[in-house]
Write a structure and sequence with these properties.
Blueprint (H helix, E strand, L loop, with lengths): L3 E2 L6 E2 L3 E3 L4 H14 L3 E4 L14 E4 L6 E5 L4 E5 L4 H10 L2 E2 L11 H6 L16 E7 L5 E5 L3 H6 L8 E8 L1 E2 L2 E9 L1 H14 L2 E6 L6 E9 L6 H25 L8 H13 L3 E6 H5 L7 E9 L3 H14 L8 E6 L14 E9 L9 H12 L4 E2 L9 H7 L3 H11 L8 H6 L5 H11 L9
Parallel strand pairs: 3-5, 4-5
Antiparallel strand pairs: 1-2, 6-7, 7-11, 8-12, 9-10, 9-11, 13-15, 13-16, 14-15, 14-18, 17-19, 17-20, 18-19
The structure holds flavin-adenine dinucleotide (FAD).
Flavin-adenine dinucleotide binds next to strand 4, helix 3 and strand 11.
């Protein structure tokens, strides 16, 4: 039987077929065949999404063999890639050519196309989600035609975050910048102190994050700024990644978590120990931006992450403290708080609002599965009282109605989707549960408003 597990081993997709196209014509051939069989089709990137957004019962397409860097224009600082290129490959390529992506999340192994599909982001209030750095992208539709969508087109806003629901991205062109170094500084901070300086801190620093050890009042502020100073010796980066990242945060942390099988409440002491090790000191180091953005993730985990309006950050964190203690949840280290600039992508959690993203996770240790779902559900309920929007690559508990009320362009997105893929080739159960079902009239009106002739924008 064909199967594909996601990175966290949380879910298994069992498609009828798995295809590994090597070229655009292979991809077009797959679309032609799927049109005939009338089955469904989904692309999987690196399978790093925690939910089942890439699952299908029909054909699963992996782009791992379709991963060439097509073109690099040093003058315009634009790089064009096949859709199977990973963030890691793109970052290495940029770095070899004196270029860099302006902001990155902590994971390098997503595909760029997969990450854009779900609104992947880093942190920095002047930096948008990854899709904001797209200059253009090509989308192969169920009809076999290709849309080339450029920044400035209304379709760029409509489909820059598309949940893999509309077609197959085949090519992306990204705007990069000159390779840069970052000076990273970390220091302990109280929530009150953060509240007092939040707006200055966010505007004065390129990249800002907060790390919180649940069950303590210990926060760490992480800032990173562009610098021309020389980079620290490789030993420093080796220590950060191997000792702090892999050994302490992953391996030692995992073995400590095993003790919670005897007594879950020991999480409190584990978090306190980790907080003393990681959050209490002041350190700084200088490295190339990708060295600084990246964090190694060895421990399989489940995660939820929600974007809430920026001005609600501190109030929400206080409520989260209270919720955890009031309901006696045992919450693992760390809770991560990031900041993202607003954009105009119809399905971006940062649509037209600067946002604070709050992520909380549960490590999944073999033979020890903590019962974390009630905690995730309670956090989601709390988040909804703050008009939060969930990260499309993580777990979600929001209803259709809630989503329809949270995204001003929700109905338009699904109407456009149905117009471009009337036979629902790119739909799956996960999408169907969320989607607005447009009527024929919705589609006709949308067509009149946006398209003079059928698919006039299609090459
Ligand atoms: C350890 C870890 C760390 C993470 N860190 C961050 C972080 O720092 N910031 C953040 O925002 N997120 C983070 N995430 C979430 C992750 O970035 C997203 O889930 C992302 O979508 C994963 O990319 P992927 O290539 O694995 O996509 P997949 O999970 O494989 O697919 C995601 C969606 O994209 C669609 N898709 C993929 N490729 C294409 C294509 N070519 N055309 C059309 N649709 C396509 C799929 O069908 C699916 O709907 C992290 C996840 C993990 C596991």
């Amino acid at each position: 039987m064909n199967s594909w597990k996601n990175w966290a081993n949380l879910s298994k997709c069992e498609p009828k077929k798995i295809q590994f196209p090597k070229s655009l014509s292979d991809l077009k051939q797959i679309i032609t065949e799927t049109k005939i069989t009338k089955e469904t089709l989904k692309v999987v990137g690196h399978g790093n999404s925690y939910n089942t957004n890439f699952h299908t019962e029909g054909t699963l397409v992996s782009l791992k063999d379709f991963n060439t860097i097509q073109e690099t224009n040093i003058e315009t600082q634009q790089v064009s890639i096949d859709a199977g290129v990973s963030i890691n490959k793109l970052v290495q390529h940029c770095s070899n050519n004196g270029l860099a992506l302006s902001s990155l999340g902590t994971n390098m192994f997503d595909n760029v196309a997969g990450a854009c599909s779900t609104g992947h982001h880093g942190s920095g209030i002047n930096y948008g989600i990854l899709s904001s750095y797209l200059d253009s992208f090509d989308l192969l539709l169920a009809s076999g035609q290709t849309l080339t969508i450029k920044k400035g087109d209304w379709l760029y806003d409509a489909l820059g975050v598309h949940l893999g629901a509309v077609g197959i991205i085949t090519k992306l062109t990204l705007n990069t910048e000159k390779r840069f170094k970052l000076k990273q500084e970390v220091f302990p901070i109280s929530l009150q102190a953060f509240q007092d300086c939040m707006s200055d801190l966010l505007s004065a620093n390129d990249h800002v994050k907060l790390i919180w050890a649940p069950h303590t009042n210990d926060y760490q502020c992480w800032i990173a700024n562009r610098t021309e100073d020389s980079i620290d010796h490789n030993f420093m980066h080796w220590k950060n990644h191997m000792i702090d990242g892999l050994l302490i945060n992953n391996l030692v942390h995992a073995s400590l978590l095993y003790t919670t099988a005897i007594k879950p409440a020991w999480i409190r002491s584990i978090n306190q120990w980790l907080s003393n090790y990681f959050l209490k000191g002041k350190t700084q180091c200088i490295g190339w931006s990708d060295q600084i953005f990246y964090l190694p993730h060895l421990l399989k985990q489940d995660a939820i992450e929600y974007a809430i309006p920026l001005d609600k950050t501190v109030a929400f964190l206080q409520d989260l403290h209270n919720l955890i203690e009031a309901q006696s949840f045992h919450v693992q280290f760390p809770v991560e708080v990031r900041f993202v600039k607003q954009d105009n992508f119809w399905l971006s959690p940062a649509y037209q609002k600067d946002m604070c993203y709050i992520g909380t996770k549960a490590h999944l240790l073999p033979f020890l599965t903590p019962n974390y779902k009630p905690y995730f559900q309670a956090v989601s309920q709390l988040i909804e009282t703050y008009q939060g929007r969930f990260h499309w690559g993580k777990q979600n508990y929001s209803s259709k109605t809630y989503l329809e009320n949270s995204y001003p362009k929700w109905k338009e997105f699904w109407t456009l989707r149905d117009y471009l893929d009337p036979n629902k080739m790119f739909m799956n159960n996960w999408l169907t549960e969320l989607a607005y079902k447009p009527s024929k009239t919705d589609i006709e009106m949308f067509k009149k408003q946006h398209f003079d002739h059928d698919l006039q924008l299609v090459k």
